[in-house]
Each structure stands twice: as structure tokens, then as C-alpha cells.
Amino acid sequence: MDTDETTQIPAKVAALAAAHDLGAPVGHRDNGGPARTALLALVLSVVSFAVAFALFYLAGTYFRPLIPVAVVALAIGVCGLGWAIVFPFRGSQSVYAYENGLVHVRNGRARAARWLEMERMELHVIRDGNLMAGTTSAYLLKPSGQPPMRVQPLLREQPDGSRRDPFGTLLTRLVADAGRPVVQTLVGKR
Question: How far apart are CA 41 and CA 77, in angstroms?
Fold first, then answer.
């Protein structure tokens, strides 16, 4: 979710931004919360198990070549169930970008950093030879004296057919405009 005119900034975030003199808000990213993600994963799992059951029944009684498709549906159901179990432990995360810095909220704990306090920003890009090669997998902001702040990308289809993350592009521009280094780090199997 990105900022628009209707985005409500929590009082705790606004107070922290004012205390650090971060200026006006320019963007917002929210992971939607773990409960919503877990619920979607659980729905995916239940639907996949139902499809797998139906396909196994049809394969056993009428058309044997459906077995590989049923196995894939079963695997998707197992993965969905795993996600439904794991995602609640990941916690919620929100990032509020301002003209002069950002506020990062993870599991209700907010912390702020000015762009000038950033040691660097790492763009984690998946290396060649992997399924999603060339795709940004994370933005890692490293403020001085604080743990890194990780922002997950949300790729959106652009009019030219490419997929980009407008909020990640905004963060990259703001960090670079502040004169802080933006480096690309390759991740994934070699």
C-alpha cells in the first residue's frame, strides 16, 4: 500500500517524524499485517486441498493422467498451509518516507532515521541463474548506530510492460539525493 491523500499517519509516527524534523510525508508502504496474509494463505491451502482431492478422485476413477496435476495441487496446498503457519510470526511492518528521512515501524516499535544518517542503502538484486534474476528482492537501509531497516518491494506493472516498485524507486532517489551511497548487492545461488 502506498501513500495517497487518504493515508492516515498514526500519531506515534507523526510525533517521531516531528521530533526528528523529517519534513512532509512523501510515501508509505505497509505489508498488510500478518493476519491478513495468513488468512489468504489458509484460503489458498483449503482451495488447493479441495482441488487436489477432486483431481485424485477423478484420476482414480476416470482419467489416470490427472495424477501429476493433482500432486501439484496437493503441493500448493501444503505450501499454503506452511505459509499460514509461518506468516503470523513475521509480524507487521510499515515504512513512512518523509522529505528528510523515514520512520520504520515493525511489530509496533517505531524508529526514525534521517537520510543524512544513512551509511548506505543496499538494493538486494537476485543474481543470474535464478528464477527471478534481475529482480529487486529487498531494500536494506542502514542508518548509523541502528539495526538495518528492511523494506520489501511491491512490483507493479508499468504502462511500458515492465514491473517496478514505485515506493522503492522513491526511497532510492531520496537516499541518493541526500548524497548517501546506493549499492546493488547480488543475492541468491551462484
Answer: 9
Q: Report whether 97 contacts 171 (CB < 8 A).
A: yes
Q: List Cβ neighbours of 142 (8 Å cut-off, separation of 6 or more).
A: 118, 119, 120, 121, 122, 148, 149
* Residue 53 DSSP label: H
For residue 141 the three cell numbers come to 537501509
SS3 per residue for 135-153: CEEEEEEEECCCCCEEECC
Tens of pLDDT, residue by residue over 15-69, are 989 999 999 999 888 876 777 778 888 899 999 999 999 989 988 888 888 889 9
Is 83:38 a contact under the CB 8 Å cutoff?
yes
Q: How many CA atoms lie within 13 A of 155 on its CB side?
A: 11
Question: Tens digit of pLDDT for each residue in 82-113?
Answer: 888 887 777 778 899 999 999 998 888 889 99
> What is d(CA 174, CA 176) in angstroms, rounded to the nearest whole number?
6
Cα 53 to Cα 47, 77, 83, 133: the distances in Å are: 10, 11, 20, 35
| Residue 97 near residue 28, CB atoms below 8 Å | yes
Q: How far is CA 90 from the centre of its chain?
A: 11
